Amino acid sequence: INSIRQEKVLKINVNSNDLLNWYDINARKMPWRVSPSQIKAGKKPDPYKVWLSEVMLQQTTVGTVKTYFLNFVYTWPTISDLAKADDNEVMAAWAGLGYYARARNLLKCSRIIMSKFNGIFPNDINELQKLPGIGPYTSAAISAIAFDQPKTVMDGNVERVMSRIYAIQTPLPLAKPLLFDCAKKLTPKARAGDYAQAVMDLGSTICTPKNPQCNLCPWKKGCLGRREGIAIFLPNKAKKPAQPIRYGIIYVVRREDGAWLLEKRIPKGLLGGMLGWPSSDWSNKPQEAAPINAGWATSGDLVKHVFSHFTLYLTVKVAEVPLRTDCL
To answer: What does residue 167 show for φ and ψ, rounded to 5 degrees?
Structure first.
């Protein structure tokens, strides 16, 4: 791989200026983004909004994030406001975005920044990575977009663009170090924030997984994947092992006055701190865990939900109860 890495990096014939010129005209409008014209006019990105958006965008589409982002910054306009927010209100505002550990880490991170950094985001990438919920990608994105530092930002879009530009056929995830080297070579020292957003925009709008619009790409002349006729097949991905399957039981209780019984999950772990139907454990052989004494009826088929690392099948048990009900 090292020899392939050196060969591919040396023979590429694209540059960041071509992409930046394209971005100046085609930059997507985002509620958290400062446009290229605003940057040139002297407006600086708000690190709070950059951080918030990047955390929300982890494993979530732009279309889904926009509404949540606008609601968050309306409700908590600054990191100080978020740090003082009620945990339950933040978790409720996050409901539907998934990966709820992100919301818990938002609160932890905001409070550390207020207490340790006097409300000012650190601009050192190593300090950023010490904060809850900020890993290599998010720290690089904040450093580049919020502070215009020439850090290499790598997400799925960038990996796809690099694999095609350099015609890297080594399958993911083995190819990640090689793709990072390729991306690092193209990252400019000037306009690093614009470049980071430009290369991600390119992957989202032009160099898409299916039916890439190569004729519109600012890097089409130097793209090795296009030249070799293999761009559409890249990146190669190693076959994933089958996801494990777990089972569980949920208990849906309706009281005669129309109230529903919910439980708050423990703060840590999957869906931590969220409200939901009372549930058994999730395992190969879940144990009954009815929350109250009731005449339980099993309802219909299993309910399927796919998490990132396992598939869950739930048996639904329902009951209607009077106002006075004995708890187990």
So the answer is: 55, 50
Which residues are tagged catalytic?
Answer: 54
Task: Output DSSP code: residue 251.
Answer: E
Distance CA 158, CA 187 (A): 12
Rounded to 5 degrees, φ, ψ at 321 are -130, 155
Q: Which tokens belong to 245?
A: 């399957």
Amino acid identity at 234 = L
Query: How long a stretch of residues is the chain?
Result: 328
Q: What residues does 318 pair with on adjacent strands?
A: 252, 297
**Who's near 281: CB < 8 A, 6+ residues apart?**
248, 287, 289
| Residue 91 amino acid letter | M
Q: Are 14 and 182 in contact (CB under 8 A)?
A: no
Question: Taking Cα atoms as reference points, which of 171, 175, 202 lies closest to residue 186?
Answer: 202
Bridge partners, 237 (sequence order):
172
CA distance 198 to 158: 10
User: How much is the pTM?
Assistant: 0.79
Residue ranges of the chain with per-residue pLDDT less than 50? 1-3, 5, 10, 328
Look at residues 222, 225, 239 and name the one whose alpha carbon lies nearest to residue 168: 225
Spatial contact of 170 and 1, defined as CB atoms under 8 Å apart: yes
Quick one: pLDDT at residue 11? 61
Residue 210 buriedness (CB in 10 A; 0-12 / 13-18 / 19+): exposed
